[in-house]
Amino acid sequence: MRNAAETRTKLLETAIQLLWTSSYHDIGVSDVCKHAGVTKGAFYHHFDSKAALFAASARHHWDKGKDELRSIFCPENAPLDQLNRYIELIINKQKKAGVPGDTEICVCPIFTAGGQVGPEDVEIQDCSRELANEQIKYLASMVRGLKGEGMLSGDADVTTLARLVFQYIHGVLAYGKVFGDLDTVRSDLRKGIYRILDLRCELRNLVPNKAPSLGVVSAI
After folding, report:
1. Buried-state track 46-73, b at ≥16 Cβ within 10 A, e below 16
2. Count of domains in the chain?
3. pLDDT tens, 139-175?
4. Residue 74 located in a structural domain
5. CA 96-102-103 angle, 5° bins
6. Is residue 211 part of a domain?
């Protein structure tokens, strides 16, 4: 028999697992309880609503994956190495997180949910924005390093570039999911990010270091 903490963790992990395979609106409290093996009474002991659960689940998932981002964006790694490791992470995680029998492409479920809900679902929208901004901060630190070392041809605002890279990544993944085309994702992701950043031409053809085999990072 689970204790309260184990039940809460099971609900958090079940919610994000369901969100990988279904849209937010298609998942009900009953679905979560069924897959988690808990009663509705247990559910409402921990969460006031479905939105509260999914917002907490997304933050739980993000917290579990932050160490992987820190290992990539740590100051000990050169900015160009950070960039290539991050791109490799996104590419390598697709098959790992893809839905069997559906697609190899995984699109961040909570960011997608943030675009699916209406203004009444404030918790989901706020969570989606919060986690997107967290990831943009990591990207901004990398862009700042690239710019500081003279690796970018232009002089664009660091935060703007980081936000554009984040937006582009999610657009490419959405395209890949719709078309079921992982090869295009692999090809376009690196080229597009290099162009957005305006990475110096002589740096674009360098063979990137292989990133370590990392797990899934959300709010990507």
Report:
1. bbeebbebbbbbbbbbbebbeebbeebb
2. 1
3. 999 999 999 999 999 999 999 999 999 999 999 998 8
4. yes
5. 50
6. no
